[in-house]
Design brief:
single chain, 183 residues, alpha/beta, Rossmann fold, 8 helices, 5 strands, 13% strand, globular, disordered C terminus
Length: 183
């Protein structure tokens, strides 16, 4: 049985938030790939991008992804670009279950305009229509990779319980053992 569950999707789709909720609900570990990269490099993702460039970052990302312990059940949130480089999507599908959190360009734009854009290296300096156009173009490039996921979720509609059920993750849930008092 595959113990790893990878949440994939565009930045701002809610991967980390949903992964934390799912891990808590299932009683298994949560891991954020970006946080692992930050621990390994000692630098914020945006700083690493600025100092070493995207290609160097994608190599570190690939290496950290492949170092994840596959023995223990775990929900893992990966960066929006992770599935699109170095055959990472193929690797994740081979070593775990992948879930694509699908959200429209307009929905992503709304979410991202309410976040700190400067923390997202590829969005730095973009706003308004320019940001929307970038999201739409980039989503069109990335979605063929995301669509390779074994389970697709409408992030605007599906609850944590629905995601768990639709993707067959209830196999991770620990059974409740209630003692009955037969007196």
């Amino acid at each position: 049985m595959k113990n790893l569950v990878f949440l994939v999707g565009f930045m701002g789709s809610g991967k980390t938030t949903l992964a934390k909720k799912m891990a808590k609900r299932l009683g298994i570990a949560f891991m954020d790939l970006d946080q692992l990269i930050i621990s390994k490099t000692g630098k914020a993702i945006s700083d690493y991008f600025q100092q070493h460039g995207e290609e160097s970052f994608r190599i570190i990302e690939r290496n950290v992804l492949r170092e994840i312990n596959m023995e223990e059940p775990m929900i893992i949130s990966v960066g929006g670009g992770t599935p699109c480089f170095h055959e990472n999507m193929k690797w994740m599908n081979a070593h775990g279950q992948t879930i694509y959190l699908k959200i429209s360009s307009r929905g992503l734009w709304k979410r991202l305009t309410q976040s700190d854009i400067n923390k997202r290296p590829v969005l730095k300096g973009l706003q308004g229509e320019e940001l929307f156009n970038f999201i739409e173009e980039e989503l069109n490039l990335r979605e063929p990779f995301y669509l390779q996921a074994s389970c697709h979720i409408d992030q605007m509609k599906d609850s944590v319980n629905e995601v768990i059920q639709k993707c067959g993750l209830d196999r991770f849930q620990q059974p409740n053992h209630f003692k009955t008092n037969s007196q």
